[in-house]
TrEMBL record:
It comes from the Bacteria. Pfam families: Rdx (PF10262). It comes from Alcaligenes xylosoxydans xylosoxydans (Achromobacter xylosoxidans). Residues 90-110 are annotated as: Disordered. SUPFAM superfamilies: Thioredoxin-like. Keywords: Redox-active center. This is SelT/SelW/SelH family protein. Residues 90-99 have a biased composition (Basic and acidic residues).
Length: 110
């Protein structure tokens, strides 16, 4: 339960605007699932908004994160998660999505 002394932290709203004529609902739903699986309760909402005219845009609190026409196609899940993370919590590691840091090879055991 929240009290007046403890206001709720802002949790962003992501909107995925997709073209119904192009039948991109499944793609939009999959991307929403990827974001919710990765960021869980750090997000306030991930909404699917139907549109027309070949539109596919993703916004983060009203700020355009991805535009199919501007960015040249659909985002890879990795790229979308990085763009959302960079707005939500830039210092947050995304594990394998960020790539592995390769250190020196361990010497072989005898």
């Amino acid at each position: 339960m929240q009290t007046a002394a403890q206001p709720a932290a802002h949790r962003p709203r992501i909107v995925i605007l997709y073209c119904t004529q192009c039948q991109w609902l499944l793609r939009a739903g999959w991307m929403a699932q990827e974001l919710l699986s990765t960021f869980s309760t750090d997000l306030g909402e991930v909404a699917l908004q139907p549109g027309t005219g070949g539109i596919f845009q993703i916004t983060y609190d009203g700020e355009l994160v991805w535009d199919r026409k501007r960015d040249g196609g659909f985002p890879e899940a990795k790229v979308l998660k990085q763009r959302v993370r960079d707005r939500l919590d830039p210092g947050r590691p995304l594990g394998h999505i960020d790539g592995h840091v390769v250190g020196p090879a361990a010497p072989p055991e005898a």
